[in-house]
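Most newcomers find our protein records easier to grasp once they have seen one. Read left to right, the backbone structure tokens trace the chain's path through space. Nothing more is needed to start thinking about how sequence determines fold. An example says more than a description, so a record of this kind follows:
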Amino acid sequence: MTPEFDRDREAALADAQAARAELLSRVGGLSDANLAVGRRGSWTVSGVLRHVIDADWGHGRGIASLREVEPPARAIAEQDEGPGTVEQALALLTVSGQRLFGIVAGVDEEAFYRLRKLGGQEWSVLSFLEGSADHDREHAAQIEALLGR
């Protein structure tokens, strides 16, 4: 392992975990009624959170494919709606985040940086982690906008 790999892996993982912690903090400040707030033609807050939870699973599957390991299980069933309570949202986001970050544990340098075409785009473990952090921040801002904050 090179110092660059250690630095990049730790920084990307820390940033993704910090973004998730920020999202969890914002969700923790919501009421159950806030989850039903939406804008015409847009997701409700619950729908946004459902999307984030699903994206964790998708990112985890992508990382697993790059690493050639077993993908994580879904945190929420495909047919289920978004979380109905803040407590449920926090639990699902925590589990989906843990599964996503857990699939990175033990990644070697080659797998971390290797770019491979998945779904029409090139991805690496690094780019999935960076994308996860950006995704959490994007949707935290979307929730704030939906709630007029």
Q: What stands out?
A: The beta strands are 116-118, 121-123. Residues 3-146 form a domain with the Four Helix Bundle (Hemerythrin (Met), subunit A) fold (CATH 1.20.120.450).
